[in-house]
Specification:
The structure is a single chain. Helix content is 56%, strand content 2%. The protein is mostly helical. The protein is built from 26 helices and three strands. A three-stranded antiparallel β-sheet has the order 1-3-2.
Length: 535
């Protein structure tokens, strides 16, 4: 008996590979479809922190009461984007909308698109986070949309399926008197050059509320400059619906502990310069008294004065001030000498060596987990809850208004200067209040953006001529620490027979033991401190 195998017809499956140019064709996109790109874990974190820095700049501009898209707002945002090394985003927001085939521009569009969706996973977790994220993203959208020309606006509307078209000249003539009266800040000649769109008034309620459009028979006549109100409504809906959808993915995403930990802590992450290792000249401890008066922020100056007066400080104060000293350039040997000279005024040298020396070595990464600890940022200090008798934390937050005013007056600030600082402090803008304090005490022409005590010190020293400003394009993007994988054997193909199976089981057992030890070590990296119980 013969059998004949009947061959099935072959169907070639063609996988469509889209180029980056076709996936990200425009500077202004509605973030409708989730990206399908493969992203390495390091790039994932880098993109998240990069966009967070961008949104924080917009948040600071809003906090300073700068009107969105005003000349002052644009000048501030442009300067901050340049300082933070985000000139690619500055180009994205200030140069035309699409058509550019430059590799750099296309890569920036990709980073913009991916980073938005990454932050959705972090900011869908609470109403407060969602509200902040939506507000900042809409400011960014308006900033990018404002850079589009009339032809680019038309291209954007067509590519995104907006069923609105500019009025013809005949249609404009029918309502030209109403257009002249409702278009504020434009001459008649400029109004005649503008395109106008007829839409239901319910789509532009913000323009109706501000009397910035012409209404007739239930329709609003909107010019190109205000068209962002129509497009922005749809963009905001897309973002809000996307955040709701992201909530359903949180549990799945949190299956990877690396991503979960990063996303949970993202909003409060420090995104500025790394001050773990000081690359400037060493600071002698003999100059700390003078530097505390001239170059230290209020939080560190008060810590220093407390130590000089009490010759002791609790654990929180030792961590906050000790890491700050390391960051400004105090060496390990000088740090030991500073703390020993102060503490031995109240205790003997043996007690200091037993109870406190380990903590100092530990902060410099010389003992324990051997981690070179990073000085505290403003965000971390503001979160600290200082108990009575503590000197750490942010004084702008922890001190009552009367005590804070008295303290500022004792440092030489006039009544009017104190009022300027307290204006921001009373509204919860502690870092801006610190920046105002810097400007007033240094007679600076520009108020700096303070996000780290060591940044405050560095800017002060540069302004006083003691240090030179490094010409960099901004802080390097943070990258995750890469740890080598632990493998039981390089090549399993060499293992054969009963003896080899036994060797393989031993290798797997050793691998599990090493991974367990590694997990325990990492869990206690930040907690190992023998002095925490010492008061």
């Amino acid at each position: 008996m013969e059998f004949h195998l009947k061959k099935r017809p072959r169907h070639d499956v063609k996988v469509e590979v889209l180029s980056l140019e076709s996936k990200y064709p425009h500077n202004v996109m509605l973030y409708h479809y989730p990206p399908t790109d493969d992203v390495h874990i390091e790039e994932f974190e880098e993109l998240a922190l990069e966009r967070l820095r961008l949104l924080r700049i917009l948040d600071r501009a809003s906090t300073k009461n700068l009107r969105l898209l005003s000349d002052e707002w644009k000048e501030y945002v442009s300067a901050e984007l340049t300082r933070e090394g985000l000139r690619n985003y500055l180009r994205l927001c200030s140069v035309g909308g699409g058509g550019s085939k430059n590799d750099s521009d296309i890569q920036t569009r990709r980073r913009d698109y991916l980073s938005h969706f990454i932050l959705r996973l972090a900011y869908c977790r609470s109403e407060d986070l969602t509200r902040w994220f939506v507000a900042r993203e809409m400011e960014l959208f308006r900033y990018k949309f404002a850079a589009l020309s009339s032809s680019e606006v038309k291209q954007f509307l067509e590519s995104n399926g907006f069923e609105i078209h500019p009025l013809t000249e005949a249609q404009k003539d029918e309502v030209k008197d109403g257009l002249y009266e409702s278009t504020v800040g434009q001459s008649v000649s400029k109004i005649e050059l503008l395109d106008f769109y007829k839409v239901p008034f319910t789509q532009v309620l913000d323009l109706v509320r501000g009397r910035r459009c012409y209404l007739k028979a239930g329709f609003a006549y909107v010019n190109t400059l205000d068209l962002v109100s129509i497009v922005g409504t749809r963009q905001q809906d897309e973002i809000e619906q996307g955040l709701q959808a992201a909530k359903g993915l949180v549990e799945e995403v949190e299956g990877d502990e690396r991503i979960s930990r990063m996303l949970k802590a993202l909003h409060n992450s420090y995104t500025g310069k790394d001050y773990t290792v000081c690359r400037d000249a060493a600071i002698p401890i003999e100059s700390l008294d003078q530097l505390s008066k001239t170059s230290m922020p209020l939080c560190m100056r008060m810590c220093h004065e407390y130590i000089r007066a009490q010759h002791h400080v609790k654990h929180g104060g030792r961590m906050q001030y000790g890491l700050f000293l390391k960051g400004i350039g105090v060496t390990l040997e000088d740090s030991l000498r500073f703390w020993r000279e102060e503490f031995t005024k109240k205790m003997d040298a043996d007690k200091f060596a037993r109870s406190y020396e380990y903590n100092i070595y530990h902060n410099y990464g010389k003992k324990g987990s051997m981690v070179n600890y990073t000085p505290y940022s403003c965000a971390k200090i503001i979160k600290e809850m200082a108990a009575p008798g503590d000197c750490h934390g942010c004084p702008y937050k922890s001190m009552d208004p009367g005590s804070l005013k008295t303290k500022l007056a004792s440092y030489g600030l006039s009544a009017s200067a104190i009022d300027e600082v307290m204006f921001f402090v009373s509204r919860g803008h502690y870092q801006i209040g610190c920046g105002k304090y810097f400007q007033l005490t240094h007679s600076a022409s520009v108020e700096p953006t303070i996000n780290h005590p060591n940044h405050y010190f560095e800017e002060s020293q540069i302004l006083m001529g003691n240090r030179q400003k490094r010409t960099t394009n901004g802080p390097a993007p943070a990258k995750a620490r890469v740890r080598p994988d632990i493998k039981g054997c390089a090549d399993r193909s060499m293992l054969m027979g009963d003896d080899d199976d036994e060797l393989w089981r031993i290798a797997e057992t050793q691998e599990r033991a090493m991974q367990s030890q590694k997990a325990i070590s990492e869990a206690f990296d930040d907690d190992l401190d023998l002095t925490e119980i010492e008061y």
